[in-house]
Amino acid sequence: MSTAVHLDEITKRFPGVVANDDVDLTVERGTVHALLGENGAGKTTLMNILYGLYEPTEGTVYVDGEPRDFNSPADAIEAGVGMIHQHFMLVDPMTVAENIVLGNEPRKWFGTTVDRERARQEVIDLSQRYGFDVNPDDTIEDVSVGVQQRVEILKALYRGAEILILDEPTAVLTPQEVEELFEVFEELTAQGKTIIFISHKLGEAMHAADDITVLRDGKNVGTVKADETSNEELAELMVGREVLLEPKSAPREPGEQVLTVENVHADDNRGIEAVTDVSFDIREGEVFGIAGVDGNGQSQLVESITGLREPTSGKITYKGRDITRASRRSRIDDGMAYIPEDRHERGLVMDFDLVQNGILGSQHSSKFSSGGSIDWSTARGHAERIISEYDVRPPHADADAESFSGGNQQKFIVGREFEREPDFVVATHPTRGVDIGAMEFIHERLLDLRQQGKAVLLISSKLDEVQGLSDRLGVMHDGELMDIVDPRNTTEEEIGLLMAGEHPESAESETDAADASVGDAR
Amino acid sequence: MSAADGAKSVLRRLVNASTVERILISFAALFMAVVVGAVIVLVSGRVATCQTAATTLFGLGFCYDPVEVYLVLFNGALGGPFLLDSPGLFNPNWNPLNFGFALTLKETTLLIFTGLSVAVAFRAGLFNIGTQGQLILGALATALFAFFVAPFLPSGVLGGLILIPLSIFVGAFVGGVYGAIPGALKAYADANEVITTIMLNFIAAQVAFVLVSEFFRNPDSQVVETTPLPDWGTLLPVAFPKGGDFSLLALAFGLGLVVAVWYLLEQTSFGYDLRTSGEQPEAAEYGGVDAKRTTVTSMFLSGALGGIGGAIWVLMVMGKWQAGVPSLGFDGITVTILAGNNPFGIVPAALLFGTLKSGSLAVQFGTGVPKQLVGVLRGLIILFVAMPEFFRMIGSSISLETDDDAVATDGGRSLLGGDDE
């Protein structure tokens, strides 16, 4: 077996972020190689480099043992590398055959006219060779997504691809189509093609790949053989345990109940139930964490608690008062701080400067306004204090929120919410996008609040973060609160299985858990 | 760089333009409009037939002289401070308090109110096209209120001091309520305010027409109009000639409202709610702003300003309500776009409109240029000056982030994390 692709110490930097950090990757010819990792781990960037869409900042790409310098996908195709993106690039009203030959059409009459008959025949030959079930005369808009994907693969093969890269190929497919796709993989590798596919689903990688490389935070954290590894090992690699958190302060005796959630149901924006019968409580001096793969109802639960979404049923009590239908403002006024999930949409008004953003949510509070008029000089002082205490860079209170980097925007929001002197903090992904130093600072502040007897609800898809900071940890799956565990006496694997919707006790859960996207962290 | 990228970068440049740059852009646009207009005047002057050429260029005779047209336009708007026969010479008989200038300021004053009306709604993210309807009903309410209350008041200055503020208030209130209707429809029934306000314009015009023609018609008049108010119940011209339909008091009131609207938007908690809703509704919701209430209140406010415009039209210009209300409300949309929705910007924008209106009358009477062509020149100026601001509005409402920007602002997720969506 020879090496088809070798990426040697690839580093890719974008302004403000390192997408790939010194990544090595070796893919053997005739194998299926899965690139596994969380959102933002740098998988697609790495493959875009191999496909010539990006140039690496450092490092070299070898294809068939030769160093390559791809300036565009055309160069990559020339070298036999084809990529099938998540969003298909097909012309809907044209036929399957026309789409496949598009750009490389066989010609007749001295190259003046497309030879449709030959094109059609070539497509038929090609699909027969790989056992593809496609009709060359169907128009793209009439065929299923699974067939469209096969057309994309045929398109790459038609251009002579020996190495096929597929970006999240299963994301758009039904389970049956996924099976069919994996059969296609087998057929292709049997004929000597090499396949690299991007995924964040453990089960798929285990099932379809020969080798699995796990990326985390832009780094290659390990390449393993699929038949020599386990779901647990992969989950561990993906989620990672290295980020060290400060050892937490001594356990506290929790005080009064601050927030009680009872049998809450909530819908998502499409009207589909996203939160199903969730109940828990949070006490003074306690950090209650919620772990779970993104999109399992955490957002809707948090919005129900903070007043941005009305639950369809159930009851939410805050400081002894039923707030199920209370307005967002009354909750803010009652000492509820909220670090929102989406800082661009909610947390900051992008066209406002930081002075104006600093009073978002407090614009009616007596701290900043009297008689309906806002005291802008107090507001400015407030913004400047947040900027200096939370190290927002550059320290320009007059700059629009939009002009700051994601991490600095986040620091400003965290600062604003903590400076509210809240009784209860809802923190969703509070450290998303911030550097390690700021992360530790935010963690310390959260623990300070806990020490002062405040209640904290922490939602994060970083398992180590919720596990390290929480006193109690709820795990959500498919809208339900699977269990509430003591994070100190529970292993990551057990939590991972809960995140996948399985109780660790039941041993037969393994296959189901494998299909779940453990560690689809954002 | 593709054409789309090029367009995006131009838009981005426009969106990020500073105030000074925007003013310079406006003047440059004005200049360009004059240049283009001059060419059109020349070309039409070539194809038109006339006895004697107004100007001769390159041995060709042209019926209209573009230089003259523009000089007359701007000179006429000021009531003729220059003697155009001997260029550059100051007219010794010129009095700033003249009819031409009064006409300019009359139009300016009315457009300040309607411009403010539209601006308030725009700032709240509401596309209020209904200022015209709000103005029509506000005007009618003012005229009827003043007509029915006047007999109970002492005539003269004292009566005017009581009647005029009350009438304006009634006009504002009725305009406000009429504005609040589409606001409530938007807030509670999710009805698009663009559609509802346009429809309500027709309704307002027809309802007012029927009311006046059936119930409140002046029996002595051939046209559909209410009975004229007594002179003491209308706004006095103050210093300007009496027939100019312009009152300095109304202008002062308008300028006062400009400051008041600015203060409301920029310095109050309510204004903060309103602007946040307009900029980013999700963030407003997060910040505890009651979106429904803010929508209704903003629309009431916008309608009230439109209603005041109507009241001033009745009290300053007509002295009565008359069918065929001029399209001040629609012009207000252009005025506020021109002003970048900034209350202070509305004053020069309205002044430009007033100048063009009054100046084009002067061109019509003072030169042989047909009024349709004058209309083209006006339209060109408005189009040219408004377009940069219009594109700014479009630019700031669509995402112009390049891939690199996205990386910098969201930690790279759009590029790196797009795979897992």
UniProtKB/TrEMBL annotation, chain A:
Record's keyword annotation contains Hydrolase: no
Subcellular location: Cell membrane
Region (Disordered): 501-522
CDD domains tied to this protein: ABC_Carb_Monos_I, ABC_Carb_Monos_II
GO cellular component: plasma membrane
GO molecular function terms listed in the Swiss-Prot or TrEMBL record: ATP binding; ATP hydrolysis activity
Domain spans labelled ABC transporter: 5-242, 259-503
Alphabetically ordered keywords of this record: ATP-binding, Cell membrane, Membrane, Nucleotide-binding, Repeat, Translocase, Transport
Membrane-topology descriptor: Peripheral membrane protein
Chief place of localization: membrane
Record's protein name: Ribose ABC transporter ATP-binding protein
From TrEMBL, chain B:
Membrane topology (UniProt): Multi-pass membrane protein
Protein name (database record): Sugar ABC transporter permease
Entry GO MF terms: transmembrane transporter activity
Superkingdom in the source lineage: Archaea
Any Pfam family hit: BPD_transp_2
Keywords in alphabetical order: Cell membrane, Membrane, Transmembrane, Transmembrane helix
Keyword Cell membrane: yes
Membrane-spanning segments: 23-45, 57-79, 99-122, 134-153, 159-181, 193-212, 246-265, 299-318, 373-391
Entry keyword annotation includes Membrane: yes
Subcellular compartments: Cell membrane
GO cellular component entries: plasma membrane
CDD domains hit by this protein: TM_PBP1_transp_TpRbsC_like
